[in-house]
Every structure is written in structure tokens, then in C-alpha cells.
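Check the record.
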Amino acid sequence: MKNLQNDPQMNEETGEIMTEDEIYDKVLSKIVGPPRSGYIRGLGAGPKPKRSKLAANDAQLREANQRVDQAERRAMQLAEELMAVKSTAAQQNEELKTVKAGAAQQNEELQAVKARATQQNEELEALKARQNQTDTLLLKLMAQLSQN
């Protein structure tokens, strides 16, 4: 055994001198068998990612993507509703301007009618005063005629 430790071993495939770890691996592979994928000699299979955690992450990602899609659809729907409300508000604003203009015109017409009514009342009062004068004169004339 001492001869093996002091005598450097050559790798049969590459022709290079093997390290201690390579020698141990070669001896162990003859005893235990060739190395297996994902298996560490002395430690076992080692840590492996849990598939359920990966599946849960995928499910969470899908759920998050669905929520994002729903939020985007809702945002688009709200944007469309906002545009409709703005359009309706603009239309109603124009209608309100038209109604205000009509009301202002009617107010001007009403003021003109009031002015004419006031003028006609003044003319009527003047006519009544003249009628009273005429009646008074007529009574005086009749009184004079009846005296003669």
C-alpha cells in the first residue's frame, strides 16, 4: 500500500497524473458503482428543489398574470366609461349653453313686453284723464243748455 501511495498513478484515458480525489473516486466507483446524476457520494442525493414549490410558484405567477390581465381589462373599461361620461358632459354643456342663450333672449323679450305694457298703461291713464275732462266739459255744456 505504501508503494501505491508514493508511486504516482497515471490516468489511463488522459495519460496525466491523477490527484488523490481522482484516485478515491476511481476506487469507490469500482466498489460502489459509477456516479449517478444528482447523487453526491457521501452526501446522498443532496438538496433538490421541491417540485411542489415550483408548481406553486407557477400557479402564483399564473394567478398574478390573471389579476394583471383583469386589472388591465378593468382599466380599459373604466377609460371607455370615462370617455363616454366626458362626451355626455360636453354634450350636456353645449345644451346648457343653448338653453341659457334661449333664456337670455326670452328675458330680453319679457323686458321689452314689460316696457310696452308700462307705456300702454301710461297712455291709458292719459286717455282716462282726457275722458274725464271730456265728460266734465260735456256735463257743463248740458247744464248750460238746460239753463237756456
User: Anything to note?
Assistant: The chain has two domains: 1-48, 50-148. The helical segments are 2-6, 20-31, 51-147.
